[in-house]
Write a structure and sequence with these properties.
Length: 703
């Protein structure tokens, strides 16, 4: 009703305007104010420009009050373009602090922090002093772009102009520090505030949560309890409980929400459901979700994410479909979390189904969604689908490029990865930290030493990115892989920070490949100190000894594992058949078709022995002497392979996932099997993809 009335008034005004001679004056100032207010309420840019042009034709436009009101009107209509145009039309003498503040506020809110700062500085050079509104407007700009030193300069100005006692300014200031990641400075401001309101307390809670200091967030919340927390305080503290998996306190907060009658607020409910999901109480979350009250897209997203957390993909899909049935339009976050989840459990069928839904809704143009699609197809082992999505995306951001480069690399297409990286540079896209991890690994897999060093050096020299541990590890791997072990050692010594297990692990792998027992032993000892619980390092060293026939030393390493209480994680493989995931452990005999599976393995063994296969018994662990070969044939990935060969239609690819690195013997068997059965076999182990076709693997036997 109210809206209708406003529209009517404005229409009257416009028709009045067109029929009236140009010399029309507003009969009174309140009339004009009324119209401006109405246009602002409707956020109608069309009406705003009409009023503006009327003011110009009636020569009423140059008064400061009218300029300010118009500026505010354009700001409320969300048109930064009109605001700037109007502002730039008037010479500075006809502006005051209100004019500037309106503009700065608008720039700050429209995500233009640097422009906001420029105008803030320009205002000061014209001799106009900022007031508390100006400061409250400029601080969010610094916060948004994490401009800590600019923020500190503004802090000094606030101090100089004596606005620190203003609770709004002080809250904006502490909020800025929190968003710039400096909770210490935020606390200083908070401690010195003479008057705090709920907003300032909430800013502290939000700040602590944002900086992952969950315990501190809960501490501040306890103090807020006596003031009467609102939905911001409550939903932030629930995030803190979720972060700490602090269920007891979370339940107390739930109780106080019920007592305060806030449980119906969708914002509060979402945080509560999220907290229960993250604390592992999915049933309580479901109860809340189904228990009436409003639900928005975030509520659904929280439930979908909750399903993934308990690895229940089918249920997540059910929620996704129910959401669509209820007429809730999935948003960018829903899709991208669905794809990431499909990727993390390599559920290709579900991922493809959601993809087709995205195509229907036209969301695919969105670069965040297409990059998560690329990653999903990549992780599900479908490199070609990933590439198709990538090529069909019109505008690639750096995340999208990086996703595709990573997929190429993970699938052993290192040359394509490097080619794509060059293409990205040619398009003028600035690479990120993570882009270089993929590119350098690709160089390493193809033995491109010169290119590797060229890119590594370009990080700091050209792109202003400090190489991190991952990049150093790639370079060590690159040198180690081609056998330049001494050089790799010197490279590690030249590092500007302490090398970690990733870096030493790369060198240990190279020692294994190039049979350097001495260096291998030294490196392994460092690794045992750095991560005494990682069975992988013990296994690597023991394999180096075994390859050299140093069986006693190998036994010694196994004994050390026992002393340190390290247990080799038991192997486990998954295979998807017709939307169902089948899990196989080593020696598994639980499947209903166990007889056929072991029969298939026997047949496979005979076939490949005829082609020259010899069991690589060094990979047999924990087995009685004489039965090594037999134990090799009970590895989980072999069982999954046999099952796949039995049930998947001829010619279709077999996709297997494994929780550990795949062993050398299984690797060899997969190669043979891909040739004999003329099938593509894709094994995604903990490190990478192995794509077996026609008797060879995409990893070129190095992993
Ligand atoms: Zn194996
Ligand atoms: Zn391989």
């Amino acid at each position: 009703m109210i809206i209708m009335k406003l529209v009517l008034q404005l229409q009257l005004f416009t028709s009045y305007q067109s029929g009236v001679p140009k010399f029309h004056q507003f009969s009174s100032v309140p009339d004009l104010k009324h119209l401006l207010n109405n246009a602002a309420k409707l956020k109608s840019l069309k009406h705003a420009t009409q009023i503006h042009s009327q003011l110009v034709t009636t020569n009423n436009h140059a008064s400061l009050a009218n300029i300010n009101t118009l500026l505010l009107l354009y700001a409320k209509c969300g048109s930064i373009h009109h605001t700037l145009l109007l502002f730039n039309t008037y010479p500075h003498p006809s502006t005051n602090v209100v004019t500037w503040t309106t503009l700065i506020n608008q720039l700050s809110r429209s995500n233009k922090p640097f422009q906001a700062l420029t105008f803030f500085n320009r205002m000061r050079t014209t001799g106009i002093y900022p007031n508390h509104f100006t400061f409250s407007a400029i601080l969010p700009a610094c916060a948004h772009a994490a401009l800590l030193s600019e923020g500190q300069q503004i802090h000094a100005l606030i101090h100089k102009h004596c606005f620190l006692n203003d609770p709004f300014v002080a809250t904006a200031l502490l909020d800025m520090y929190a968003k710039c990641g400096s909770m210490l400075l935020a606390e200083n401001v908070f401690d010195e505030m003479p008057h705090r309101n709920l907003v300032s307390w909430n800013s502290m809670i939000v700040g602590f949560v944002k900086n992952k200091l969950y315990g501190r967030a809960i501490g501040v919340f306890r103090e807020v309890l006596s003031l009467g927390p609102d939905q911001v305080s409550i939903s932030s503290v629930l995030s803190a409980c979720a972060g700490l998996v602090e269920l007891d306190f979370g339940k107390q907060v739930h109780g106080s929400i019920v007592k305060r009658g806030l449980v119906g607020l969708v914002y509060v409910k979402n945080s509560l459901v999220d907290m229960y999901c993250k604390c592992g109480l999915f049933e309580d979350a479901t109860k809340l979700f189904c228990g009436g009250g409003d639900r928005d897209v975030v509520t659904w997203n929280v439930m979908i994410m909750g399903c993934f957390r308990c690895r229940n993909f089918e249920q997540a899909c059910t929620y996704f479909q129910a959401m669509i049935r209820e007429g809730v339009e999935p948003d960018e976050a829903s899709y991208s979390s669905l794809f990431h989840a499909s990727a993390s459990i390599a559920a290709l069928t579900q991922g493809t189904m959601i993809h087709s839904h995205v195509l229907k809704t036209g969301h695919v143009k969105n670069s965040r969604i297409s990059s998560s699609l690329v990653t999903m197809y990549g992780k599900c082992g479908s490199m070609l689908d990933a590439y198709q999505v990538f090529r069909e995306t019109k505008e690639h951001n750096v995340v999208c490029w990086t996703a595709m480069i990573t997929v190429f690399h993970q699938h052993g297409c290192a040359n394509e990865a490097i080619k794509l990286f060059e293409e990205m540079l040619n398009e003028g896209v600035v690479p990120e930290y993570i882009t270089f991890v993929s590119v350098l690994s690709a160089c390493s897999h193809t033995g491109k030493i010169d290119d590797g060093f060229k890119y590594f050096n370009s990080m700091a020299n050209v792109h202003n990115i400090k190489p991190g541990l991952e990049h150093y590890a790639c370079m060590v791997d690159l040198l180690g892989r081609v056998g330049r072990l001494e050089e790799a050692c010197r490279f590690i010594e030249s590092m500007p920070f302490e090398p970690d297990s990733l870096v030493w692990g790369a060198l240990l792998g190279a020692c294994g490949k190039h049979a350097n027992v001495e260096m291998g032993r030294e490196v392994a000892e460092r690794l045992f100190k750095l991560e005494p619980d990682n069975p992988g390092n013990y296994m690597l060293l023991s394999n180096i000894y075994i390859r050299h026939g140093m069986l006693e030393e190998a036994d010694e390493v196994r004994r050390l594992m026992g002393i340190n209480g390290v247990r080799k994680e038991s192997g486990c493989s998954w295979i998807d058949v017709k939307n169902r995931t089948f899990v196989f452990n080593a020696n598994d005999r639980s499947h209903s078709r166990t007889q056929e599976i072991y029969g298939m393995l026997q047949k496979l063994k005979e076939l490949i022995k005829r082609r020259g296969y010899v069991a690589e018994t060094q990979f047999a662990t924990n087995s009685v002497e004489g039965s090594e070969e037999q134990s090799l044939w009970c590895h989980s990935e072999k069982l999954a392979l046999a099952f796949g060969l039995l049930v998947l239609p001829p010619g279709s690819p077999v996709r297997i996932k494994k929780n550990l690195r795949t062993c050398g013997d299984c690797h060899t068997v997969m190669k043979f099997a891909s040739e004999i059965f003329q099938r593509e076999i894709i094994v995604r182990d903990i490190n990478r993809f192995h794509r077996f076709t026609n008797g060879s693997c995409s990893c070129m036997d190095y992993w």
